[in-house]
């Protein structure tokens, strides 16, 4: 029988204590001898935070990021086909959501390998929950274009779609470009359009602001530089 592929959420940042991950999820992780990780250093740091895991030198690590060739990802199925359970560890939050683990999950299904998602934090859903925007109709768009002109065009497109379809639009940016994205949104969107920024979710410095673009412009802007942030637009 093949093993099971577990999808294991990690914390959304460094926390002094565990306030986001159920003990059941941590206990599954503590038993795994095979892990697919995006970054070995941060993965081992997380394992040390969890505690009581199999010793790192006994764990079979596979490096899975956005640049891993498809053929190499296919080879990650070998221990699963040999009957070993394995886990995908995200860098932060939920595996396979805005995360390269999705490719391996797809292959697991194609090869009749059981996939089990485990409970843990998702910054996208936590941001939507706290925004006050439409939670019945929403879309996640990942990263917007880096260059300013196409980025502003995309913001205008998302704002229009939100207004026409009553849809919450969710996206993100590399943390060191957050302030630039915030300024572009405020320069591009209508005053009545609503914007929420959800920053450092679940961490001690968590900040969630949800108000109209007009209100955003009339007040002091938060400093989002190098702070993980989810952006939400709502045109209704």
TrEMBL record:
Protein name: 16S rRNA (Cytidine1402-2'-O)-methyltransferase
InterPro entries noted in UniProt: 4pyrrol_Mease, 4pyrrol_Methylase_sf, 4pyrrole_Mease_sub1, 4pyrrole_Mease_sub2, rRNA_ssu_MeTfrase_I
Domain of life from the UniProt record: Bacteria
A biological process from GO: methylation
MF term (GO), any: methyltransferase activity
UniProt keyword annotations, A-Z: Cytoplasm, Methyltransferase, rRNA processing, S-adenosyl-L-methionine, Transferase
Record-annotated Tetrapyrrole methylase domain positions: 26-214
CDD domains: RsmI_like (cd11649)
